[in-house]
Amino acid sequence: MPKLTFLFLLFSVATCLAQSEPPTDWNDSDTGHRVIRLSREAGSASLYFHQNAYSPDGKKLIITTPTGLSTINLQTRAIEKVVEGRVNVIVTGRKSGEVYYIKNGAVFATHLDTKSTREIAKLPPRGSIASVNADETLLLGSLTETATQSAYNAPSPNERPDGKSLTFAEQKEVRLNARLEQRIPMAIFTINTKTGEMKTVHRATDWLNHLQFSPTDPNLIMFCHEGPWHKVDRIWTIRTDGSNLTKVHTRTMNMEIAGHEFFSADGKTIWYDLQTPRGEDFWVAGWEIATGARTYYHLQRDEWSVHFNVSPDGKLFAGDGGDNEMVAHAKDGKWIYLFRPNTIPDVAGIKAPNAKDLINPGFFQAERLVNMARHDYRLEPNVTFTPDMKWIVFRSNMHGATHVYAVEIGKAKQD
After folding, report:
1. Domain locations in the chain?
2. Residues 264, 35: Cα–Cα separation, whole Å
């Protein structure tokens, strides 16, 4: 082969490889915001939206990769392997700097800096772990108490009783309902991180899911009753000793739904997606734990997001958008959003006599941060704020393979 031809082929291959590699740093032409790719290994992903992914000093972000767990230094973008091998991440500890995860049927903790690793406990039969409490003394999990096959994993019918075809989303609802109606006995439990002692907190035949510890109160648990959202009373809290079981939201109209609940960073408020009714009117609703006070922020249809999140100081919200096949059926909803909350004041300062007992209404002022038109929403982006509140981290397949990205909240400077 002539030398020039060989060099040309090498150049062509190198060019193709470069073109297939997602960009590492660019300004979104539709929003003016800077976006960076934090991960290098294809198949890397950030954590689920309510899982704490940041080190106690706020400098490191935990991500999953095809080969294990890694940290990303948010200042230098240096990536460091922490755990080798595929694992199921639970959460990053808020005090110790350890990441908690499941591997080979047991729960482990590995220090992000020293890589020191310890096994905490074996998983109970048919059990899983979902959270670690604020002082890292307890793990939180759930289990099914009988070896019943879940109906959710069974094939769903293709037609409704009236003979009309079921959409993909409707088939999922059928499977959710079938699993709920099985009434499989379940339990919520804790495991002591020092001794491995396991204690049962709550038993039910409801489908117990979405377990979270408060980020500040080590004895407060939030969980959900899983199933079709318009059918179940979804959001609940309970103490670690099994006391004070509390329903967070009560439905007031047919087809009203509430879900994808999460704590504020200070642990004072539970926020959740509220629709009155489903797919028609959209809110991010907040319930203040200590007082029961409620705040509802209104959204437009295209601004509805699969998941919402709130900044560490509680002053900003974010959303990861959604496609037109999801519950909002948005015509133009594929964006990463920043939301600035606004409350609606009393006219002329005149209050209703029972104003303090009523819902405090407001609305979100939305700003688009990233155009997600090329993203396949079968992968949920799961937005989180960085501890310094300068970036929003998300995962995306917008360039093909899944990677971890961050968008700068402040707009990029124009030359």
Report:
1. 35-122, 149-179, 253-258+266-393
2. 25
d(CA 257, CA 248): 13
Residue with tokens 């959409």: 167
Strand order in the sheet with 60-65: 60-65, 68-73, 79-84
Amino acid identity, position 61: L
Alpha carbon distance 130, 211 (integer Å): 6
Taking a C-beta distance cutoff of 8 angstroms, is the pair 224, 209 a contact? yes
* Geometric angle at alpha carbon 197, from 191 and 202, rounded to 5°: 55
Dihedral Cα 44, 48, 51, 52, nearest 10 deg:
40
Taking alpha carbons only, the member of 288, 240, 281 closest to residue 258 is: 281
Q: Is domain 35-122 given the CATH code 3.30.70 in the classification?
A: no
Of 377, 384, 336, whose CA–CA distance to 62 is shortest? Answer: 384
For 378, phi then psi, to 5°, come to -65, -20
The CA distances from residue 271 to 134, 168, 182, 259, 292, in Å, are 18, 28, 29, 9, 12
pLDDT in tens, the chain (415 residues): 444 333 333 333 333 344 478 999 999 999 999 999 999 999 999 999 999 999 999 999 999 999 999 999 999 999 999 999 989 999 999 999 999 999 999 999 999 999 999 999 999 999 999 999 999 999 999 999 999 999 988 887 777 777 788 877 788 899 999 999 999 999 999 999 999 999 999 999 999 999 999 999 999 999 999 999 999 999 999 999 999 999 999 999 999 999 999 999 999 999 999 999 999 999 999 999 999 999 999 999 999 999 999 999 999 999 999 999 999 999 999 999 999 999 999 999 899 999 999 999 999 999 999 999 999 999 999 999 999 999 999 999 999 999 999 999 998 765 5
Q: 141 near 193, Cβ under 8 Å?
A: no
pTM of the model: 0.92
Give me the sheet containing 235-239, strands edge to edge.
208-213, 220-225, 235-239, 246-247
Residues in contact with 293: Cβ distance below 8 Å, sequence separation at least 6, in sequence order? 287, 356, 360
